[in-house]
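Curious: explain these tokens?
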Amino acid sequence: MTNLISAEGLKKLCEEYDYLWKVERPKVVRGVSDAAAEGDRSENAEYIYGKKRLREIDRKLKHLGSRLKVLKVATVPAHPGQVTFGCWVTYEEEGGEERCYQLVGPDEIDVSIGRISLDSPVGQALLHKKVDDEVIVRKPTGEVTLYITGISSIRPG
């Protein structure tokens, strides 16, 4: 798994960690404590849900804490000559459909806004390629050929 992240992505993860640790967890702990004071815990839905939510928060905090220790902020070159971390890559598929994605680390993936993992089959195939390169991507459904039409440090369009 890639340990690269953008400065913006690192800031978001730190904010999420701080929110969970300083706001959400104390609120849930108070709720569990209040529910426990009401008596029989075995049939107290607020207590049971609160304990479950507390375990979820602690799991997330542990995960974020371990990721934050190993992440390295990467910068995108101003005028990339080849596909690297953080670049926006525009390519044409065999059928003529054009797509544009930013290659990011696993902590920033969000396909709905065009961010795919550097570790994905498409990300790995595009890495270190240049404009006008043909790229073969091996997918579970078979091989697909892509034609790189643009590389940019900022989102095109």
Remarks:
- Helices lie at 7-37, 45-70, 121-126.
